[in-house]
Amino acid sequence: MTSQLSKRRTIRSVLVAIDDASAGPETMEAAVNLAVDLEAELQGLYLEDVSLLRMAELPFVNEIATGSGAVRQIDAESMRKAMQQKADQLRQAMFHRAESAQIHCTFTVASGRVLQRVLLATSETDVVFFGCRSHAPSVRPPTSLRPRGAIRPVLVMIDTSPHSRRAWEIAEAVAQKHLRPLVILLLAFDRVTLRQLTRDAMERSQATRLQVTLLPQPITNLPSLIQTVRKQRPELVLLSRECPLLDDEAIESLVDQLDCFTVLA
Amino acid sequence: MADPNRLSSSQLRWTCGTEHLAFDTTDDLQDLEQILGQARALDAVQFGISIRRDGYNMFVLGPPGLGKRSTLNHFLTMKASCEATPDDWVYVNNFEQSHKPLALRLPQSRGAQLQRDMAGLVDELKTTIPLTLEMEEHQNRIQEIEQEAKQRHNLAFKELAERALERGIQLVRTPAGYAMAPIREGEVLGPDEFEKLTSEERARIEEAVKDLQEELRELVERVPRWRMETRERIKQLNQQATKAAIGHLLARRRQEYIDLPAVLEYFDALERDVVEHSEDFQPQEENPGAVLGLQVAHEPEFHRYQVNLLVDNSDTRGAPVVFENHPSYQNLMGRAEHESRMGTLVTQFTLIKPGALHRANGGYLVLDALKVLQQPYAWEGLKRALNTKELRIESLGDALSLISTVSLEPQPIPLKVKVILVGDRMLYYTLYQYDRDFAELFKVAADFDEQMDRTPENCELYARYIATMARQEGYRAFDRSAVARVMEQSARLAGDSEKLSTSMQSIANLLRESDYWASTQQAKIVSRAHVDLAISKQVYRANRVRCQVHEQIARGTVMIDTQGESVGQVNGLSVIDMGNFSFGQPSRITATVRLGKGELIDIEREVDLGGAIHSKGVLILSSFLATRFAQTRPLSLAASLVFEQSYGRVDGDSASVAELSVLLSALSNLPIKQSLAVTGSVNQRGQVQPIGGVNDKIEGFYDVCFARGLTGDQGVVIPRSNVKHLMLRQDVVDAVVEERFHLYAVETVDEAISLLTGVPAGELNEAGEYPAGTVNQRVAARLEELFDIRRQLSLHSKEDKS
């Protein structure tokens, strides 16, 4: 599937957007690997939140360190340096990985909020990659305690938009390369569309050797969609940027609340 | 009138008459079952093997080549086969203290069974535990816990964020943590906007930020505790599931080992450990992003559930008999090996290797005593094990407290073994004298004799031994002439015509080589000629040095006279021992005398070339002279004795007769016949005592004389007490028969000096004087003369002073 993708060169670029709410190095690493899988160019984007700089100039605002809870005084200069340092680290990591993986990459630092900025930039890239995002510290138990036997699947949300097919192709390619089960979540408002999507998915699934699970259930609202996705415990979720069921706000919310990598195709 | 000192040819060698051998060839003889000529040693060996008491280990002593090891092997194998086979020993992990592995004792062959069972159990656990933990129901419960934890977190942060918003503050994420930022109309306030606020407003915001920061700090501090709680809950859930799942697997094993409480205890500990580490049995963990190729290998280690089968007696029948040829400390005591991991040397209980003591536990361990003593700390380790009756494996570094790295301290194993050391006598007596533990630990000594009496019965047994060897080794049959020649050579090896050598190694070599030479001549039977050839070839291969020495004498480089007479000069005899070959060599000994105060100077001793025994011999001469010739006046001479052209150490007192004779010659001014050589030691009373190597010494002088041409006057003077030791070469005997060479036996130094000078020694008459013209009279007169000169000198000296 990867070769088919590469022959057609349907995916030319992968944009990975990272801000301070993202797990930066992990996200960067995973994005590089996706770009390698797709033989695509990688565009790194680090977003500095200008509101943090303003906040840092207030003398009574302190920073509470993640993990230790230590209270630190901050100022604009130290905040700027911290952001620059993080950007530099990400840039170096990305270039180093891209060089060893022999893919082309660029890295940009911009100001603004991730999702807003990325959603604006979707017209300039084929695929947008998001890391795990959370405003709360990680509460996942140590990996040693989690059931290791269950291989986490790749989940793709299929709708009627043309970009949905691209997401499907990428999902198949990644699942095939990494021997992962593929979960296909069919999104439709009405049963007729759902049946049609189910039929298409079944036909397509039979042509692959993948372990495919179809979830042809109608999704009534965003929380239920998030719950359904979470229940599958996916490693990677792919969806169309033009999904008629999800507006920008819903996509932002979805990316924010899923505990996994997300690809917007 | 026949010379009473001269020996007849029949006294020079024992010849084994074939008429006494009642067989044609060794094929006619039965195998010999017993060990030859070692009755005392065999009695000790049987006693030492049989007695089961503390400290009754055994030291088998005697020179090499007596068959000590083969004898031991024979008796030990026989005894051990009737004894019970000892238990197996295994080391297993100590789950409480992993650096102290536990030793388990199991009946024969069940150690290997336990090892197999545990390997099978681990395989089953690897399947069962992941299946259990991956079951949907179990995973759902874990997810519930995770979800619950996540919700609690999210809720806590959400509530904090909401409370903050109510006060116009937003919870924001910073590069390294969190902060509380004041906002207005959805945007974070900058310092300019903040300054524009009223002082009350600013104070309110500052107060709110301060309160919320404190709440945030407390919340962030709670996160690790929550994470730990979640972890504990999931762990407990995993453990409960695992315990339930593996119960039946262990129950089956417990049933199989129900008669072994120690094993059951181990199973209990193992079960607790498996439950505790159930996550190790799950398939390899993948780090985040694994789906995108970011896999980091993490191989769980199951070695702690393995069984290290230290001693496996599955194939042992009876008690073990172990011969350890390289008794290093580690080879004896066992060791914990190390392996390299990421450049670091690590060890674990599966790397514990047994030593010879482990393998011999419950049986017998045979060691070469010298090798044990040569290996650093092996002797100390062996004694410690025997004293404590337990086997404790520790590295030399730990044992000597040289290093203090974390290492294994395996549980000691009870030791019940009989150790048998094999070594030479000197080693035994040295250990007995200087090692205070030795006598306590090695109470039985089996002393192997180098020779046996040459009785008709023993000769018959010897012939049967030859026959047995020939059959066992596939040699040709030996006819009785060959057997007779082997026995004659055996007597020569024993250095005694009335004894036979028990050095079976030498005899075996002679049989082997005789068979070889017979084969080169296509002979079907080994005869006397083949044995003779084998002996002469042995000598030829080994006698390069002898040829060189004799050549130097023949060419006059080493000055030895074999004709004529000379005052103060005599031919002494010495033996050069090359280890596998020894030969005799004549040495010129000279003496000079002068006025003195009784000093007898041994030049060899003066230059530290004389050994203690040689010095003792020379001092005895001084004492003899004083006793015989200086009863009423002091000895007024100074004499010097020297081994001419001797540049190495001289030891032994076998030249003391020669030295006394040459001294008497110098004093009496009577020349000594250079056609004679003399050997023997002398005591203070002038009695001649036996010496060693008499055959080599005689043959050495004979060879020198023969090379120059035998004159018919040449011969050797030996102690009469050495006559029974004569086993001379046939050519020497033949020369004596033909009166071309002579052997004289003497009992006193007077007999010796008479033979050497041709002048009677002279006996003291009733008047206390020696007959005129005799050696002793001339010596006494010379000493009197020296005394007078000394007295005159003393008087002149006093007159000069007055």
Any descriptors?
heterodimer; A: 265 residues; alpha/beta; 9-stranded mixed beta sheet; two-stranded antiparallel ribbon; 9 helices; 11 strands; 44% helix; disordered N terminus; B: 802 residues; 7-stranded mixed beta sheet; 5-stranded parallel beta sheet; 26 helices; 17% strand; elongated
What is the helix content of chain A? 40-55%
Unreliable spans of chain B: 285-291, 293-298
Number of helices of chain A: 9
Level of helix content of chain B?
40-55%
The order of strands across the largest sheet of chain A is: 5-2-1-6-11-10-7-8-9
Derived from helix and strand composition plus strand pairing, the structural class of chain B reads alpha/beta
Biggest interface, CB < 8 A = A-B, 62 and 68 residues
Which percent range describes the beta-strand content of chain A?
15-25%
Strand order in space, largest sheet of chain B? 25-26-24-23-28-31-32
* Radius of gyration of CA atoms of chain A, rounded to a whole number: 19 Å
The secondary-structure element order of chain A is: HEHEHEEHEHEEHEHEHEHE
Report strand % of chain B.
15-25%
Q: Give the biggest beta sheet of chain B.
A: 7 strands, mixed
Shape of chain A: globular
Rg of chain B, Cα atoms, Å? 46 Å
Oligomer: heterodimer
**Number of E-state strands of chain B:** 32
What is the straight-line distance between the termini of chain B? Answer: 63 Å
Q: Runs of chain A with pLDDT <50, length 5+?
A: 1-8, 135-149
Mean pLDDT of chain A: 78
* Extended strand count of chain A: 11
